[in-house]
Amino acid sequence: MKDQELMQVFVPLVDFLAEVFGESCEVILHDLSNPEHSVIALRNGHLSGRAIGSSMTDLAFRVYSEKQYEGEDFLANYRGYSGGKTFVSSTFYIKNEGRLIGMLCINSDTSQASELRDIFNRFMRRFEVREDLPHVEENLGNPVVSMVHSLIDKAIQEAGISPARMTKAEKVQLVQKLNAQGILLMKGAVAEIAEQLSISEPTVYRYLNGSSSGVKNRRASGVNEHRE
């Protein structure tokens, strides 16, 4: 097949590919028999500012003159520039008996994709957690009883020993720590502490005897001294 006959086979592909990829995609067919006016078919040429009769690009010239096409059928997904725009470009090498006679190029304008990426990044910044507040957490969904359970369970985990293996002194220390955190002011906290530490509720109050803040908190919550 003659070179010009083979080139004509690719002309309908220009319209086809442009319809498939849409308006943000430029499709160009180069005939290398006339490098200075190589563009013989194109769609969406406004994206790069080219038209029928435009010349081949610097990359196309290097591929042609340095025979970079030998052993390769295409070059895909490289960066292109034109008029302040950035493109993702791909080129198919049209050969006739090993000779490079043309190139079919697809150049996708990344402007819209970049705008969408920027919008998405701005949106996602609304959900970024401040790294300088690693210990600040808030349970927004649990009811009070469940929240008390979680707080006490967390304190036990931080102690690094299970309640079954704790000494009396360790349990006293844990109860007073929970009291200092204000957990004893929450409804149901005493019962929950007693259950998790396998002690009685009066024992919880006795463990607070050595803490003046514990006495103050119990009085504020309406707990009578004689219950200890």
Per DSSP, the total helix count is 8
| Poorly predicted regions | 212-228
Average pLDDT score:
86
The rough form would be described as rod-shaped
Domain module tally = 2
- Beta strand count: 5
Major sheet description: 5 strands, antiparallel
CATH class of the largest domain: Alpha Beta
Order of helical and strand elements: HEEHEEEHHHHHH
Task: From the alpha carbons, calculate the radius of gyration and give it in angstroms.
Answer: 38 Å
Would you tell me the structural class of the helices and strands?
alpha+beta
CATH homologous superfamily label of the largest domain: PAS domain
Amino- and carboxy-terminal Cα gap? 105 Å
Looking at the overall shape, the CATH architecture of the largest domain is 2-Layer Sandwich
Taken as a percent bin, the fraction of beta residues is 15-25%
Report strand order across the widest sheet. 2-1-5-4-3
CATH topology name of the largest domain: Beta-Lactamase
Helix content: 40-55%
Describe the structure in your own words.
The chain is an alpha+beta fold and 228 residues long. The chain folds into two domains: 3-110, Beta-Lactamase (2-Layer Sandwich); 143-209, Arc Repressor Mutant, subunit A (Orthogonal Bundle), CATH 1.10.10. It has helices at 3-21, 58-65, 111-124, 144-159, 168-180, 189-197, 201-207, 212-220; strands at 25-31, 39-43, 74-82, 85-96, 99-109. A five-stranded antiparallel beta sheet has the order 2-1-5-4-3. The chain starts with a helix and ends in an 8-residue tail after the last helix. Residues 212-228 have low confidence and may be disordered.
